[in-house]
Amino acid sequence: MITLQDLRKVYPTRSGEVVALDGISLEIPQGQIHGIVGQSGAGKSTLIRCLTALERPTTGSVIVDGAEVSALSEAMLRQARRRIGMVFQHVNLFEARTAAANIAYPLAIAGVPRAQRATRVQELLDLVGLGDRGDAYPAQLSGGQKQRVGIARALATEPAVLLCDEPTSALDSTTTRQILRLIRDVRDRLGITVVIITHETAVVREVCDAATLLADGRIVESGPLADVVTRPGSPLSQALVPVPDVGVGDQRALVQVSAGGAQTQIAHAMHAIATEPDAHVVAGAIETLGGVRVGRWHLDVADGDRVAVLGRLRAAGLAIEDDAA
Question: ABC transporter domain: which residues (predicted)?
């Protein structure tokens, strides 16, 4: 559905070139909710602008729904963009138009007859849970309701791809969960492919099927959550299933271990830790992500017993991630 091939974007400046994207290659299959995560300056905004062809890559290609958008003429690009819905952080609704009129706007631009527009708008209002709020203006809606209108507007032209740029960063935690559940529900009903640009791993943990971590314009790691969360030493896994902070005393030799898979594998790992006389749990966390149970623990292991203890834990199926001391 989405293919990025050796994508590179370079901006010339007075002081030299700035490389915003540096060799990005990525496949996102149809129907997947894929999170693109990274801190400010990682390249997320440039990536989403390349996906919509608001920016042309310096080299490489961007293929969305079978069309190489990075190579289309302006006329063809206008048609291709109708297959890409966009949800913004701050929604960007027309304040002087009702919710229904905001949703109808892209349909009018596309030349859809008025009667068909009205039917489609009501369908979308019902889909996002605002069936009775079509006549409300943005000032009369809550932040979550505005974002629901934004999602409905993005779906108006029946796109194949929904791009969400920090869709919940301006919302409180309860509303965030509601909007993320709505995005998953929309995907499940429509089979649409969803890309969520975010700096919050909590968003990835809540709704995504797969994730890609960007840093300095490059992919650090990428994959389905079921693979990422069980990958030893994975930065994404450590962010998605963090172990609580612990104080490190002078006598402690902390080691971080992990295990993932079925419930029985986690139970086996916990039993191995509990019955290991020379290692003690200081902190731990267990989550279910991507349909996989994953556990991560900080163990206090005496220096003199470290090699033997870690050997026994490895034999029990645990991954030794790193020393936390």
Answer: 2-241
Q: Can you give 115-179 as a three-state secondary structure string? A: HHHHHHHHHHHHHCCCCCCCCCCHHHCCHHHHHHHHHHHHCCCCCCEEEEECCCCCCCHHHHHHH
Q: Could you say which residues of the chain have pLDDT below 70?
A: 247-253, 322-325
Architecture of the CATH domain 235-323:
2-Layer Sandwich (3.30)
Q: What's phi and psi for 277, nearest 5 deg?
A: -70, -20
Domains 2-224 and 235-323 share a fold: no
Q: pTM here?
A: 0.88
CB 32 within 8 A of CB 210: yes
Q: What are 221-224's contacts with CB under 8 Å, separation 24+? A: 222/26, 224/290
Rounded Cα distance, 250 and 233, in Å: 25
Domain boundaries, the chain: 2-224, 235-323
pLDDT at 325: 43
User: What whole-number distance in Å separates Cα of residue 104 and Cα of residue 108?
Assistant: 6
CATH class of the domain whose range is 2-224: alpha beta
